[in-house]
Specification:
This protein is α/β, with parallel strands linked by helices. It is 28% helix and 22% strand.
Length: 188
Amino acid sequence: MRAEEPGQGPPRVVGIVGYSNAGKTTLIEKLVRRFRAQGLRVAVVKHAHHGFDMDRPGKDSYRYREAGAGQVLIAAGLRWALLTETPQRAATLESLLPRLDPCDLVLVEGFRAEGSFPRIEVRRRGIDEPPLFPRDPQVLAVAADHVVPTTLPCLDLNDIAMIADFVARTVDLDACRRGGDESAEQAQ
């Protein structure tokens, strides 16, 4: 996979799942900030249920895709994006992970039905849908703003340090930190 570096193995992947408006995006945003502050390289993959369009009608990239281009790469300043059409079938998480640059952690929002990687379910007071964890054995913990009846670890949704520590232990992020330290020592 491309999202790894030689000798590191596959990227560490943790899923954040839950229903709309549960707080998944906010949680991921806080986790990214926390792990980046610790010097880790973090990537995020988000599944959009209703499709999305990054460009608008009339823009060059939109016109190229409308004309039939299978891929359009847009580059500007300090950012680039590759738009890839997949008309035959939806892209799978397995097909997307190798496209990421090397990183220490990949946080995945959605892709509930794909892959075998640990997940944290986000629950918020007022969401009436049934919990996912009884039907998804990959859910290892619940992050909530209220008490959730479960034998799984319940993490306080407002305690980002607690959730980050759970993520770090679950995928052994300390190995990334040790690996990075060893590489730096070898370079000297």
